[in-house]
Each structure stands twice: as structure tokens, then as C-alpha cells.
Amino acid sequence: MSHMHPPLESYWILDPAQIACLASAPRMTIIDRLAADGPLSVDDLARVIGMKQTAVYHHIHKLAAVGLVHASERRFMPGARKPQTLYATPAPRMRLAKALQAPQHQAGVKRCAAAMLRQAERDFAEGFDREAVHEGAQRNHGFFRLIARPSPAAMAEINDHLDAIADILWRSNTDNGEPVALSWAMAPLSDETDPRSEEGQKR
Q1: Span 10-131+140-171: which CATH code?
Q2: How much of the chain is in helix, strand and coil states, percent to nearest 5?
Q3: Mean residue pLDDT across the chain
């Protein structure tokens, strides 16, 4: 089964209850896994995430209560007396970008970003225990941070590339690929201490 999806199949997360629910690294990870690999059972999720089944049930219940996941089908496993429920996300592209634009969602989005960065820290650490490639065309483990002063044209080019990278990941999601996590955060910085300015030179 391929997980390639139409380009417009996105679910925009704008409900305050949904945003608040995602301010949790485990719940964000569950959403990401279901969007990439779902439908999955609680057993499946517990195995791939490395979490106890009871904890996964707890988080699935909270996500389902706000409409971020739903029961999609039931599956019988060999030897099992009862079928397993498989869960899925409303769409393969679960997106928070529009919430970032709304002032009323600012506090919730900040908590979501903090949860994402906590999970990114765990993902990066786990990479050392996997088949990590640190250079070349198949690189799957690395980090990068810098401060720059891009022009408006350069800023537009940067954002075009970020959108393109996300689209490549969504479009190329298939069963035979190795899972990777990509997280990025960008923020404008204060310019009050610009060392080139007169004010900065006085400090």
C-alpha cells in the first residue's frame, strides 16, 4: 500500500481545543505517525513510538475527543479474540501554519512549538542509535542553526525551499522508505543590539 496522497489533502488545525491538545510531544508524535503510516492500531503505535499501550490509549482518547484522530477500520490479528481498532488522521497533511497567523492562537501555538522542539531533541538523540548517515546524498542525521540578515528576496527564496522540502516529504512517503523526522523553527530576532548601529556601539 502506498502512502502517496493528493497535494491538496490537508487538514488545517484551527480549533483552540485541538491546538491545546497538540501541546504535547507524545500526542504530536502520534499524529505524525498516523499521518505518515496510518491507519495504525494502539499496538502498532506503542511499538513504533516506544510507549506503553496504556499511555497510547490515553493520548488517542484525548486526540479523538477533539477530532484529530478517528477510528477508521477494525483488523483481526491471528489468534486474537477481538479485532483491533485502527486509527487515522482526518488527512495526511495535518497543518498548524494558519494558526500561527492568528493572534488568539499565539499562546497555544507557542506550546505546540515547544512540544515539537522537545520531540526533535529526542529524535536527534535516537538517531545515534539508528543507521545514521551524516554526509552525502543519503544524509538522514544532522543539525543546523545560524543567524543571518536575508533580504526580502532571499527570505522569499528560503520560504519557497522550506515549502518545497515539506512537499517532497509528503509526496515521497512510501512503505519502502526509512522513516525520518524533520523539524524546523524560524523566528525574527531583536535588532536592538545590532553592533553596526550607533545604539549597538554605545552598549
Answers
A1: 1.10.10.10
A2: 45, 10, 45
A3: 89
